[in-house]
Structure formats: C-alpha cells, structure tokens
Design brief:
The protein is an alpha/beta fold and about 240 residues long. It has one domain: Rossmann fold (3-Layer(aba) Sandwich). The protein is about 40% helix and about 25% strand. The protein contains 10 helices and 10 strands. Strands 6-7-8-3-9-10 form a 6-stranded mixed β-sheet, sandwiched between helices. It has a 4-stranded antiparallel β-sheet with strand order 2-1-4-5, covered by helices on one side. Helix 3 runs parallel beside helix 6. The longest helix is centred in the last third of the chain and has 16 residues. About 40% of the residues are buried.
C-alpha cells in the first residue's frame, strides 16, 4: 500500500531524515519507533504532505504522492493524527467532526453514516456532541482528533504519539480503539514512544536512529531483543 524510498528531509542545513525506506502492506499495523529526535514525526509529516522531502519518493497504492499537498494526500486516502492533539477549541465536537469530512462535503447521507460509525467507536463523543471541544479532557480530545481523521474515510491512518501525556487508564482505552480500527481492515502506521505497547500490537516495526532505519522486522522479534530496546528505544 505504501512504499517510501530513500527519503531525506531537511530543516535548513540539518538532515532530520536520511535515506529512510518503508514498506507497508494493506491491513498491516506497522510501528515506527526510535528515541526522541530520531526522525519519526518528520517521516509521518512527509508522507502526509506537510513537509517536503529533499530526496526520495513516496508511493501510495502505486501512485507517486511525493509532491502532493496535504489536502491532496487526504483525498488520496491518507489521514494523519499529529502528536499536538489540536482541536478547534471553540467549535463543538460535532462541528470538529464535520470539518474532518470536508473532502466529502455535500454527501449528507455519507456524513450521517460516518457519524454513526464514529459514535459506535467513540460513544463519549456522541455524549459530548454539543460541547465545545476545548472543554474536553485530554483523553477525550485524543479520541476526537482520531475520530476527525477517520471522517475523511482514510485507507491509511498515520498516528503520531497517541498516548502522549495521557494517564495509563486512558492509554489503554486509546490502544483498544486502535486495535478495533485495525480489525476493520484499516492500515495503520504508528509512531509511539511507548515501545512495549506498540510492539505488542504491531505486525512489523521499523526502528529509526538519527534519521536512518537502524533495524526492521517482525514486531515480536524486535520486542525480544533487549539490546535493541536499550540502545534505540530507551527502555
């Protein structure tokens, strides 16, 4: 479904990502791991079209999307949930979800179906539908930004640090939702600092170190390598 080849991304003179290669099959949950500053978020932002690469290519379902804008990438079927957990604070939960469906505006019946699906996955968002998004708890806001991304009907979901700043009980809820999404057939590329939980649910994993792929393989095999965890994951 997704093939990233020889990706290089720079911030000025600094190469944040150097020659990164990724391959993701349809229906997989793939974890992208590494210490802070390894280039994980930069890689996701490049796939989403928010950062332009200085070298390399990004192919989605056989089509080159390297030069596309973020809106064009969404229209192709890729949605990203950034680690910043930004909601439109003054808008209601329902209005936030409607904004997530902007590429399908005019499809009233489709919006209703999508909203019903979101409410089945995130019942709390139905309860909070008329509430300003800025008044939600951190965990509820995380659910909202994931739900908002799903309203674009993506086939590939990019998740950047979904557990960041959440209490352990909320982390469990968020990852249970991610498991449910994978079970629907959605392909997921997950960046997560909590390596243990990411590897426990991923099919495969890539570990980045200083902007390059240090290792890749079956998630269970990577989880079993204590040296790898100590060196690259900080665990």
């Amino acid at each position: 479904m997704l093939e990233v080849q020889n990706l290089e991304v720079c911030y000025g003179a600094i190469k944040a990502v150097k020659k990164v290669d990724l391959l993701i099959q349809q229906g997989e949950l793939v974890a992208l791991l590494g210490a802070n500053g390894a280039g994980k978020s930069t890689t996701l932002l490049s796939i989403a079209g928010a950062l332009k690469s200085s070298r390399g290519s990004i192919q989605f379902e056989g089509e080159d999307i390297t030069a596309l804008s973020p809106e064009q990438v969404v229209r192709k079927g890729i949605a990203m949930v950034p680690e910043t957990r930004d909601v439109f604070a003054d808008l209601t939960v329902r209005e936030n979800l409607r904004l997530g469906a902007f590429i399908h505006r005019g499809d009233t019946e489709g919006f209703s179906r999508d909203l019903n699906r979101i409410h089945s996955l995130f019942p709390i968002l139905q309860t909070r539908a008329s509430q300003p998004a800025g008044t939600l708890s951190g965990g509820e806001q995380q659910m909202l930004v994931i739900a908002r991304a799903l309203m674009s009907r993506p086939r590939l979901l990019l998740l950047d640090e979904p557990s960041l700043g959440l209490a352990p009980t909320l982390v469990e809820q968020i990852f249970e939702l991610i498991r449910k999404l994978q079970q629907t057939g959605l392909t997921i590329l997950l960046v997560e600092q909590n390596a243990s939980i990411a590897l426990s649910m991923a099919d495969r994993a890539y570990v980045l170190a200083l902007g390059v792929v240090a290792t890749t393989g079956n998630a269970a095999d990577i989880a079993a390598s204590s040296d790898l965890r100590a060196i690259y994951l900080g665990t």
